[in-house]
C-alpha cells in the first residue's frame, strides 16, 4: 500500500466528523475515509459500547427516585478571579474556565465536581439540534457544562474513570457568547472574553431533573459520565440561533467553509439502563421562544 495512503488512513482518527464520509483525493483514485458517527467505533472502539450517549428519555418509563437530592453550587455566580476564553475547535463553540474553582455537589453525585468548560450542540434547522431527545422530540440546541471529579488531578484523568465527569445546559447571557463569533469563525480560533456568571446560564428550576449513566457524546466516547438533564429548558431567539448557524465554520481559514451546525450524535440504545427522575411530572415547556435543552455531565 502506498505510504501516503497508509498515513492518511492512520490519521483519520484526527478527522472524526458529524457529516458522514470524508472523501480524500489521492493521486488518481478516490479514497473514502469513514468518519461519521456510525463509523466512530472503527477508530474509537468504546463508541460501540453498551452505555453510550445521547439517549431518548421516555417520560413514561422514567423512575421517580426520592433519594436524589438538590444540587449545591459553589462559585457559579463568581466573576472575580475566574477566567473565560472562547474557542472554535472545529466541532463546536467551547468556553473554557480557569482560575477560582467553580464546583458542583449534591444531586446524588458521589463527591464534588469542578467545572471545566461548556459547549453547544445545535441544528441547521429548529426541528433538530439537541443530542438528547425527550419522547423522541429534538430541541434546537443543547448546552453542556462539563465538570470532573475533584478526586482526579485533571479532566484527562477523570475521563476514563467510572464516575468522573458532569454536563449542564441553559442561556440568558447568550449574547455575551454570540458577540465573539466574528473572532472565532473558523477552526482553532480562540480569544479571551470578559467573565460572566456561570449561574446566568442555568435554568430557573434546578430541582427537577433526569439522571442516567452514559458516555461522552464525542470520541473517544468513554463510558464514564453521570448525566443530569434538567427538565426546565432555557430560551433563545431564532435570530440568536441563526448566528450559530451562519457565523461558525468547522474548517480552518484556508479551507472551503463548512457550517458547524448539526454537530450532534444520533441517540444510542439504552441496553437495559434505567432513567431516574427527581421532582414532579407536571413540567410545561415554553412556546414563545426556541427551547434550549440543558444537560449536565459529570465525570
TrEMBL record:
It catalyses: hydrogencarbonate + H(+) = CO2 + H2O. Keywords: Lyase, Membrane, Metal-binding, Secreted, Transmembrane, Transmembrane helix, Zinc. It is an enzyme of class 4 (lyase). It is found in: Secreted. Residues 14-279 form the Alpha-carbonic anhydrase domain. Its cofactor is Zn(2+). Gene3D superfamilies: Alpha carbonic anhydrase (3.10.200.10). Its main location: secreted. This is Carbonic anhydrase. It comes from Tegillarca granosa (Malaysian cockle).
Amino acid at each position: 500500500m502506498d505510504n501516503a495512503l497508509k498515513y492518511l488512513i492512520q490519521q483519520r482518527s484526527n478527522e472524526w466528523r458529524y457529516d458522514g464520509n470524508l472523501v480524500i483525493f489521492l493521486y488518481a483514485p478516490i479514497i473514502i475515509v469513514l468518519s461519521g458517527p456510525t463509523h466512530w467505533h472503527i477508530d474509537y472502539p468504546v463508541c460501540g459500547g453498551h452505555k453510550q450517549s445521547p439517549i431518548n428519555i421516555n417520560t413514561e418509563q422514567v423512575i421517580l427516585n426520592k433519594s436524589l437530592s438538590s444540587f449545591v453550587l459553589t462559585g457559579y455566580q463568581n466573576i472575580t478571579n475566574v477566567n473565560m476564553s472562547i474557542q472554535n475547535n472545529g466541532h463546536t463553540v467551547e468556553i473554557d474556565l480557569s482560575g477560582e474553582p467553580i464546583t458542583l455537589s449534591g444531586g446524588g453525585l458521589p463527591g464534588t465536581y469542578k467545572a471545566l468548560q461548556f459547549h453547544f450542540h445545535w441544528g441547521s434547522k429548529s426541528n433538530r439540534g439537541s443530542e438528547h431527545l425527550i419522547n423522541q422530540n429534538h430541541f434546537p440546541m443543547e448546552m453542556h457544562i462539563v465538570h470532573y471529579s475533584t478526586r482526579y488531578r485533571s479532566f484527562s484523568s477523570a475521563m476514563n474513570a467510572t464516575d468522573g465527569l458532569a454536563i449542564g445546559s441553559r442561556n440568558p447571557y447568550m449574547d455575551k457568547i454570540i458577540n465573539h463569533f466574528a473572532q472565532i469563525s473558523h477552526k482553532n480560533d480562540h480569544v479571551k472574553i470578559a467573565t460572566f456568571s456561570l449561574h446566568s446560564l442555568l435554568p430557573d428550576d434546578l430541582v427537577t431533573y433526569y439522571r442516567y449513566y452514559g458516555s461522552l457524546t464525542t470520541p473517544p466516547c468513554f463510558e464514564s459520565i453521570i448525566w443530569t438533564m434538567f427538565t426546565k429548558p432555557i430560551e433563545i431567539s431564532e435570530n440568536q440561533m441563526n448566528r450559530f448557524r451562519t457565523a461558525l465554520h468547522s474548517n480552518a481559514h484556508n479551507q472551503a467553509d463548512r457550517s458547524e451546525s448539526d454537530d450532534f450524535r444520533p441517540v444510542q440504545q439504552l441496553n437495559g439502563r434505567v432513567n431516574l427522575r427527581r421532582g414532579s411530572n407536571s413540567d410545561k415547556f415554553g412556546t414563545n421562544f426556541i427551547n434550549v435543552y440543558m444537560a449536565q455531565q459529570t465525570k
